[in-house]
Amino acid sequence: MDRIDRLPEGTIPAGTAATALVTGGNSGIGFEIARQLIDRGVSVRISARDLATGHRAARDLGPGVGVVQLDVTDPASVSAAVKQIGDLDILVNNAGVNPGGEDITGTDLEQLRVAYETNVFGLITVTQSALPALHRSAHPRIVNVSSGTGSLTWNSSPNPQFDWEQVAGGGLAYRSSKTAVNAVTLLTAQALGDGVKVNALAPGRRRTNLVAGATGGGDPAEAAAGAVRLALLPDDGPTGALWSWDGTRVPW
């Protein structure tokens, strides 16, 4: 399957309330994912490392959202948050960091540790903790927010997705961590089988706080719509793939 933008959204049975957890849902793309899921009748829990920040975001989102304290790099807080949520149908692994744009000549090991602890190990920690609840769901979905800059195919030759001269070889810590996220997505989908839809999203460059001081980028809501499409896939929808925000398939 090369496109998902023409697939119908999965339906939420009348009288039931699907529950979603959006990590890092207090800002940026995660905030917009939460908002759009709420608009579709999903009961959303957003996670934030700081509860006060999470509650401010929840007030802006309005009814239908709850907040849990969760630091994806702290297994104890992950376990406590998932236990607090209880039933879960949709997991959106959105929390992520970008510790710098250096290439191999300038990246230090601390940047790599920071990127992998949150973007990869944290994602795995949350997923593993949420699996028992997801297995109880009739329509479990996992969406991993990745990046097109983690696609080895797109990175291996100039293409219109990137300003090639600026990105070639740069962002080693962040981009390689997202390549790892893509691998984790594929292997998780293979391990869980077709009953749990597991997909990754390439959201495109967006106006978020992921890169301090960065300017430009598109509307986070546009990227969020791609994540919501994956979160509400029909039962015959695809699994184990990387998808662009516009619904087209991204090569590994």
Protein architecture, described:
By secondary structure, this protein is an alpha/beta fold. 41% of the residues lie in helices and 14% in strands. The chain has helices at 28-39, 51-61, 75-85, 109-136, 152-155, 164-167, 172-192, 220-231, and strands at 19-22, 43-48, 65-69, 90-93, 141-145, 197-202, 241-244, 249-250. It has an 8-stranded mixed sheet, with helices on both faces. The radius of gyration is 17 Å and the shape is globular. The two termini are 14 Å apart.
Shape: globular
Strand content: 5-15%
Give the fraction of residues assigned to helices: 40-55%
Average pLDDT metric: 90
Strand order of the largest sheet: 3-2-1-4-5-6-7-8
Q: How many E strands?
A: 8
Task: Give the N-to-C terminal Cα separation.
Answer: 14 Å
Largest sheet: 8 strands, mixed
Helix/strand order, N-terminal first: EHEHEHEHEHHHEHEE
User: Could you tell me the radius of gyration in angstroms?
Assistant: 17 Å
Structure annotation, total helices? 8
Low-confidence stretches: none
Helix-strand makeup class: alpha/beta
